[in-house]
């Protein structure tokens, strides 16, 4: 089944719309004899079977959609979804748009007469600037939320049980593309839906419902996607969430945000920022895949250096993210945080929610979308020639090392913009800041373990135990170990 996203990119900025409806749509499809017998049912007057495609059959929408697509194939500016057929006229002026619309509508009428497709005159919306189409309003200015959906949200009573919360949140999620702050406001309600949470309705839940209803009254107008215009994605991360926005010529086309999982919340800031770009590309895959002129804007300056370095120099987790981005022709550029107003608002708005995708979000993503990269379960220790006991020892000594404690905090929270603003205790790590990460309490430089000061003499003794010379000892150690000045210490300790 096609989705609204399959139609939006074909719509002009300025246009004229007509919406026609197929009359008794399914009943216009005749069943062949074997299929007809499969619909046999009992009645007080004996067995009966359907001769036409009945309502209520699970595959009926797909069967009808395929049949309608075959009947209307080749008609330009005609977009059928289910029993709705949208006719779009476009042009540089209102007169040209109307002429184009009339020609396309006439072609549709001729085709319907040829294939005997009956239409409903009662549901006809003829040559209008705004039209309601699949739960949204298509207009000459862009995509709008359906006022009836907004009204339905405003009139919904406050939930009285978990099922009610699920219905309310599920219905509101249908408008998620218009609501950048939805994740933040829904967070108290999401917690009520957790399996291990006892139902207890509090004033904060009442406040969340009221704020959601306030948000749906302030939905923005989204621009139609234009395949010929350059694309910009703004992405950002916070301690608890990711946010992104697809833009063209400075106007939003679509919003997206999600909460970070508990594991992702412990990522280094540079990893969160890179993950936000991956999330943006995968969420907007059907807009980005296979095209040029894609600019990814980030407010995390150290991330720019990662994209310019060889892939092997990046930590394992970042390597997986960078590999996922190889599907897209991205140009990653730095933009100061104050200018990243869209994605910054989104990421701050997610708060600490659960990382689940609604059914609407799943269906909104085109079937061409690649499998989502799984970076959460990458353990860098699996790639090291180090025993588990040694890693535990390194973690324990790291916890007692004041310098590495400060370094770990800087890695997780983000580095300053310049070296002079960095704390003196960790300033010597500034040249390799893009390669540092934290996993399971251990600090890594790319694929090498950062050794606490208290363990360095022991490591030097292990390195020199082979008696192969200073240069050879260093080549052996640099595959696994790291600390500032390690090379000179190994050579001086011969």
UniProtKB/TrEMBL annotation:
Domain Integrase zinc-binding: 451-492
Domain of life of the native organism: Eukaryota
Pfam families associated with the record: Integrase_H2C2 (PF17921), RT_RNaseH_2 (PF17919), RVT_1 (PF00078)
One term of GO molecular function: RNA-DNA hybrid ribonuclease activity
Gene3D superfamilies in the cross-refs: 1.10.340.70, 3.30.70.270, HIV Type 1 Reverse Transcriptase, subunit A, domain 1
Residue intervals of the Reverse transcriptase/retrotransposon-derived protein RNase H-like domain: 201-292
EC number of the protein: 3.1.26.4
Residue stretches making up the Reverse transcriptase domain: 9-137
Annotated family: Belongs to the beta type-B retroviral polymerase family. HERV class-II K(HML-2) pol subfamily.
Listed name of the protein: Gypsy retrotransposon integrase-like protein 1
Species the sequence originates in: Oncorhynchus mykiss
Lineage of origin: Eukaryota, Metazoa, Chordata, Craniata, Vertebrata
């Amino acid at each position: 089944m096609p989705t609204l996203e399959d139609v939006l990119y074909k719509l002009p900025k300025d246009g004229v719309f007509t919406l026609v409806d197929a009359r008794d749509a399914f009943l216009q499809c005749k069943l062949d004899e074997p299929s007809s017998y499969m619909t046999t049912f009992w009645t007080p007057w004996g067995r009966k079977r359907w001769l036409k495609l009945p309502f209520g059959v699970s595959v009926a929408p797909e069967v009808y959609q395929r049949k309608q697509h075959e009947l209307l194939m080749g008609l330009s500016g005609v977009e059928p979804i289910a029993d709705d057929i949208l006719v779009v006229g476009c042009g540089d002026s209102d007169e040209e748009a109307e002429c184009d619309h009339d020609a396309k509508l006439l072609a549709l009428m001729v085709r319907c007469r040829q294939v005997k497709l009956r239409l409903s005159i009662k549901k006809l919306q003829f040559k209008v600037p705004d039209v309601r189409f699949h739960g949204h309003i298509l207009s000459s200015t862009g995509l709008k939320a359906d006022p009836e959906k907004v009204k339905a949200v405003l009139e919904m009573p406050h939930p009285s049980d978990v099922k009610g919360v699920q219905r309310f949140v599920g219905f509101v999620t249908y408008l998620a593309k218009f609501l950048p702050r939805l994740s933040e406001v829904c967070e108290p309600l999401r917690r009520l839906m957790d399996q291990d949470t006892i139902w207890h309705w509090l004033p904060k839940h009442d406040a969340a419902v009221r704020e959601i209803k306030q948000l749906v009254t302030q939905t923005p107008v989204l621009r139609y996607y234009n395949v010929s215009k350059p694309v910009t994605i703004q992405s950002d991360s916070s301690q608890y969430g990711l946010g992104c926005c697809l833009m063209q010529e400075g106007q939003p086309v679509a919003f997206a945000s999600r909460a970070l999982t508990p594991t992702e919340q412990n990522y280094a800031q540079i990893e969160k920022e890179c993950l936000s770009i991956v999330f943006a590309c995968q969420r907007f895959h059907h807009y980005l895949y296979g095209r040029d002129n894609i600019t990814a804007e980030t407010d995390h300056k150290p991330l720019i250096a990662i994209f310019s370095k060889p892939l092997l120099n990046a930590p394992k987790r970042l390597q997986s993210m960078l590999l996922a981005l190889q599907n897209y022709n991205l140009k990653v550029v730095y933009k100061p945080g104050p200018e990243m107003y869209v994605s910054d608002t989104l990421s701050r708005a997610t708060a600490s929610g659960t990382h689940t995708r609604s059914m609407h979000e799943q269906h909104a993503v085109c079937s061409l979308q690649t499998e989502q990269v799984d970076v959460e379960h990458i353990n860098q220790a699996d790639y090291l020639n180090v025993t588990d006991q040694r890693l535990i020892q390194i973690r324990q000594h790291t916890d007692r090392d004041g310098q590495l404690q400060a370094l770990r905090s800087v890695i997780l929270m983000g580095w300053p913009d310049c070296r002079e603003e960095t704390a003196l205790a960790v300033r010597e790590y500034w040249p390799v800041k893009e390669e540092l990460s934290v996993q399971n309490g251990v600090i890594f430089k790319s694929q090498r373990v950062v050794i606490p000061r208290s363990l360095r003499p022991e490591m030097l003794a292990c390195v020199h135990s082979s008696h192969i010379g200073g240069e050879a000892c260093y080549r052996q150690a640099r595959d696994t170990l790291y600390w500032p000045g390690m090379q000179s210490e190994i050579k001086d300790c011969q």
